[in-house]
Every structure is written in structure tokens, then in C-alpha cells.
Amino acid sequence: MNLERIPNEEKLSLCRKYYLGGFAFLPFLWLVNVVWFFKEAFVKPAYTEQPQIKTYVKRSALGLLLWVAVLTTWISIFQHFRAQWGEVADYISFTIPLGTP
Amino acid sequence: MEAAFFTRSTMVKMKNSSRVAGVAVIKSNTGPTEGFSPHTSCPNQNTGVYTEHYGPELANCNNTVWNPLGNGLSYEDFAFPIFSLKDDNQTQVIRKCYEDHNMRMNGSAPQYPLCAMQLFSHMHAVTDTVTCMRRTDLQNSFSINPEKLCDPLSDFNVWTSIRPLNNSIKGHKENESVVIAAARLDGRSFFWDIAPSAEGTVSSIVTLLAAAQALYPVALEAPPQRNIFFTFFQGEAFDYIGSSRMVYDMENSKFVIDLDNVHSLLEIGQIGLRNGQSLWMHSDPVSRKNTTVNKQVTLFIKSVASSLNLSLNEPSATQALPPSSFQRFLRVRPVPGLVLADHQASFTNRYYESLYDTATYLNVTYPSDLSPEQQLEYETEAAKSLTQVATLVARSIYKQAGGEDRFLNNITADTKTVTLFFSGFNIFVLKMCTNMCAPSSSAESSPPQYYIGLRLDNTVKSVTRFVQFILANMTGTVTKLNQSQCQNPKDVPGESKDLYSYSWVSGPVSVNGTTDPYCVRSSVHLSKALSPAFELTDYGSREYSTWTESRWKTIRARIFLVASPQLEMMTLGVGVAVLLVSLVVTYFISSKAELLFSATREPPNTTY
Questions:
Q1: A86 to chain B: which residues are within 8 Å by CB?
Q2: TM spans, by residue (chain A) (predicted)?
Q3: B46-66: b (≥16 Cβ within 10 Å) or e
Q4: Within the 147-206 window of chain B, which residues sit less than 8 Å (CB to CB) from chain A?
């Protein structure tokens, strides 16, 4: 979808939809929001809806950073300690590799 | 590496080194003269009868070390594959590859290309039985395509009774007192599915079979007071799988008799290396502290000693019982019993549970001018020695069961039969199969191996089948039933599926290749030999065996020549360079396309 051809109100409503959607445990929507509307929010010359789009983009970026931090921490801990946790780790794993502890 | 290097010190060094990726051992026919046993020095020490509560001074081999040559190699955890290779033409290719490329020349390092070997032996299971069984259970419950990680070791015990018992009614049988004659049916070594086990297992199987054959006609003619059971326990090398299962079934009324029915037990241990010396009768000193038990055991010893003019001795009164299936019975009930063996204290077997425990070790040698068929029938010293023990066992069992003395002299084991069995179970079973095999099994021409293995689809191991059918042939009767009646004798008068088992046997192959099958009725049965730990799903059990075998991906190996890293880098570099050059050339050509391809074009229709 080419953002050039859409009127500004629709750009704002699209940005809002993606921002609100990301709260449903969907951080990728926030990532898309940040990447797609970055030019609109910070590079283009000012227009009426731009401050609101800017807020949405900033908040999406914040949420995204939070998610990245949480997931990185959990994934590192799990990958490192899965072997030592024994039974608990097996019960929360979806696939367990064969042939390694 | 050659077989001479396969020792504990070398293997431990390799285990601790980070530079070893795999080991391939070239087998040799004879072991090192000082002996080699990869088993532990105190076999089955945690599942025997001696614990802190029962005979603590005898527990953990404090009193006698049974297997002093044991180096425990089979119980070490190696992180790399270890293969064993037969010493034949392919192994010679490996040796030649090493000599041509990898040997040091004049003290300098060998040059590339070098000979390399890749061993594939990916195992699914890790850590221990508890982990792999838990993961298998998880896979079975939650996955669409379950991936099995490991399976418990299991097979079947073979048992038969002189007087048939109703097999459909399990539990205690009234007025039934049974004397059990037992032997083990399995062995192991360091490598998977290699277990020639000549001294450890074959000698006892052959002796018990010969004893059964000697005893049956007399017992039918002049039945003794008590019933007699001949049992072959499978899986004894792995913490007594078969005997612990049978005792468990007896305790829980899932077996045809109950422990109250068991009067006494005579077990045949390792007897192949007797060499004309005396036979030792081992008993358990702790249970003999009780006067009644002591009296019964002493009587038993007396009846064994008086059966045959063979040199018999008892070891010292405070010596423990050697590792044997009898220990599992003692764990539950102080049954009076004896274990016959050719060793007084430690084993005389220098290759206990190793790949060198073969017929050659038992000095089974034939004069060189005999053909294989003649070799089968040649009576070796070892066979003669086993015949004597078989006669002893048969007579003592008969006497212990209350048989009368005047019939004792009619019980004699036949040397010819023992020789046939001995060659068959040790060297090859080819000849035996033509006479008494189930129709579906095939003849094998290599020595049978006694590792218990797995029963993935409830089939029976071939050696167990052989023992079952040989026993059925010797102790059963031929009936006139046809094939469908044989498979289902419910409606035939006089035949009972509860008391007997019926097998449809193909019979001997006649000269023009046809067979004349018939139905054999016998009281030989198979009982499942799966550790009770798996029935109780207590995978971390300390009471019962919890041995499992991992599943694996295809096991293979290959050798090839490896180029030097410089050559590999150069090839990669050249490839990348070609890629870049082609990119640059394509860019130039496409940007200057008008200049390059601007030659005058001819109109398409100028052919006139």
C-alpha cells in the first residue's frame, strides 16, 4: 500500500489501528508501525495529523523495545538452563531436540 | 585402533580428550592373555540380595570380589561413537589408506590429502532412563507424529514343568510344591548385539537342556513327589530383568504358581571352565542362619553330592552367594537353594561379559581334518565335562523332588546331545534349525549372540525361540492334529489349551526338499521378561532393573580423503571471485547495451 495516495485522516486511522492492535500481544504490528510511518512522522513537512502520528510511532517504538528486551532475556535464560531444569523444562517445551540433554 | 589397544586406560584417556571424535576397534579372535572384562567388578550389586539390611558385611562385594578383572568400561558414558570392525578385506582397505596417506614419513607430519573416517551413530536418548522415558511419554500424548526416544530391554523367559499346570489360572496352586532348576539365557559385551557368552551363558543353557532331556522319560515313568520346573531367565546381565519379573509376577499372583509353591531352587551358574576339577555349590549364609532353612539347604547339598560320583565342594560358610537369579528369589523369601559354579570365590572366567568369551576360550578345538558337519558331532572335552554336570543336575533335581533312589541310575545325560547343543549354541545353529524350528524362522550361519535386545512388535528373540522349541521337542509329544486344530485346539477332545502349548513344526527337510509338518504338544511356555519398573512406570526405581536402549538414526561409517584447508579456501576464493567478476561484467554489458548491440538490424521479412 502506497502511503502517498491516501488522505491524511486515513493515514492517522491506519496508524492508530496498528498501534491499538499491538496491545493484543502482537509486537510485530508495532514494528510495522514504526518502520512504515517513520518517514510520515519525522521526515515529511508538518501537517495537521502529524503530531498524533508522531505520538503513535513513538509509543509503538517504546512497546517494541520492551517486548524485545523481555523476549531476549527469556530466550537466553531458557536456552541456557533448559538442560538443567529437567522435568519442568520438558513440560513447557514444544519440541525437544533428540540426542542432546 | 587394533584390539590390543582397547583397554580401560586408553579409552579413559580418549574420553577425557577433546580431540577424539570417534573410535573404531578392529576385533580380534582371542582376547589379551591377562583377561578383559568391561563389566563391573561386582556385577548387579544394587539389585542383588545383599543390602545394608540383609547381610551388610557381604554387600557391595565386601567379602568377595566376583569379577576382579572387571574395569567397568561398559558403564562409562562416551560422547563419541565407538564402532567395532571385523578384521576382513574392508578393514584392510582402512589400514592401507592409513599407511598410504596418514603415516609419518621420516619424522615429519603427513601431507594433505589425508585419510579421514566419518562415523554416524546418532542416538535419540540422553541423560538417563527417567528423562528419555518421560520425553517418549510426552511425545506419545501430545504429538501427532510421536518420536520414540528409547525402549525398555525386554524379551521372554522360557519355562516348562514336568507335570502340566493350568496356565489360565494364575496364583497359588493348592498342594503343589515345585523344585525349580534355573539357568540364564543372556549375556552382553561392550558393543551392541555382540555377546558370544560361551562360558557365561551357553554352558549353562546346554547343561540345563541336557538335564531336562535326561530327566523327562524317568520322571514320566516314575513321577516324583513334587513338580519340577525348568526355567531359563532372560536379561540377567542387566540387573536381573527376567528373574525379577518372574518373582514379581509370583508375588502378585500373575504367574502360574506362587512363591508359597516354591520348595527349592537349583541354579546352574558358570560351569564351562571346570576342566575336570571340582564343582562348587554356593549357598546364601544369611538365610542359613535360620535353622529350618539351614537344615533344608544341608539336605539339598547332601542329595546333590550323593547323586553322582563327581568332585563337589562347598565354599567357606561365610562366603556370599555369587550374582545369580537365585538372589532375586531370596530378596522376597528365604527359599533354600544352591548355585553350581566352576569357581570357588572369584570367577575363573577372564572374559566375563566381553566379546572374547567365545568357544575358542573354552578350548573347543577340533582335529583339523573334520568337516563342519563332523565338527558338530565331535565330542570335545568341554562337552564331556558338561554332560557330567547335566547328569548331576538331573539326578539331584529328581532326588530333591522326592524321586526314589532306585531310578537314579536311569537318569544319564547323553554326550552326543550335549555336543550337538554345545556346537549349535556356540558356533552355529544352522543344522539345528532344519529339525526343530518354527516355520517362519530362517537359518543363521553366524554364531548366535545372546544380548537381550528389544521386542518392538512382540516378536521373540531367535535364541529364545530355539530354546523353546528344543525343549518342546525333547519334552513334548507329537499329536495327530492338523494345522488349524493345532492353532486352536479348543474343540478337540482330550486337548487343553490351558495345560499345554501347541506348536506347528515343519519337521526335517527330506532329500527332495519337502517337509512333513506336525503338531507338537508340550508344556513349554514363554513368560514376558520386562522389568517390573516399566509396569509400575517407576522409571527411577532402585528395586528393579530400569535399563533401556536408545533409538537411533542409520548407523554407518565411511572413509574418504580430505583436502588441505588451504585448498578448500582457495576453491572458495576462486568461486567468490568468479561471482564478483561476472556481476561486474554483467553490469557493464547491460549499461552499454546500446553501444554493443547497435549493429544494423535486418528487417524480418527480407527473404525474397
A1: 131
A2: 18-38, 59-77
A3: ebbbbbeeebeebbebebbeb
A4: 147, 149
Spans in chain B with pLDDT lower than 70? 364-365, 372-373, 375-376, 428-445, 599-608
- Which residue, chain included where needed, has cell 532331556? B213
Chain A residues with CB inside 8 Å of B126's CB?
A: 99-101
Express each pLDDT in B103-148 by its tens digit: 888 888 888 889 999 999 999 988 889 999 999 988 888 888 888 8
Q: Give Rg (Cα) of chain A.
A: 20
Sign of CA dihedral B528, B530, B536, B537: negative
Closest CA to B116 of B557, B450, B442: B557
3-state secondary structure of B189: coil
Coil, helix or strand for B378?
A: coil
Strands (E), B224-271: 227-233, 262-268
Query: Model pTM?
Result: 0.87
Enter the ipTM. Answer: 0.78
Crossing angle of helices A50-85/A27-38, nearest 10°? 140
> CB of B131 within 8 Å of any CB in chain A?
yes
Q: In angstroms, what is the C-alpha Rg of chain B?
A: 31
Q: Please check whether residue B222 is in contact with residue B404, taking contact to mean a CB–CB distance below 8 angstroms.
A: yes
**In which element (H, E) is residue B479 found?**
strand B477-479
A84 reaches B (C-beta below 8 A): no
B302-320 pLDDT per residue, tens: 888 888 888 899 999 899 9
Task: Tell me which DSSP letter residue B37 carries.
Answer: B
Q: Does the beta-carbon distance from B124 to A98 stay under 8 Å?
A: yes
Contact call for residues B65 and B2 (beta carbons, < 8 A): no
For an interface test with B, the pick among A88, A93, A98, A100 (most B C-beta atoms closer than 10 Å) comes out as A98
Give me the residue label for grid cell 588441505: B564
A86 and chain B: CB distance < 8 Å anywhere? yes
Contact status of B81 with chain A (Cβ, < 8 Å): no
Rounded to whole angstroms, the Cα distance separating B372 from B366 reads 10
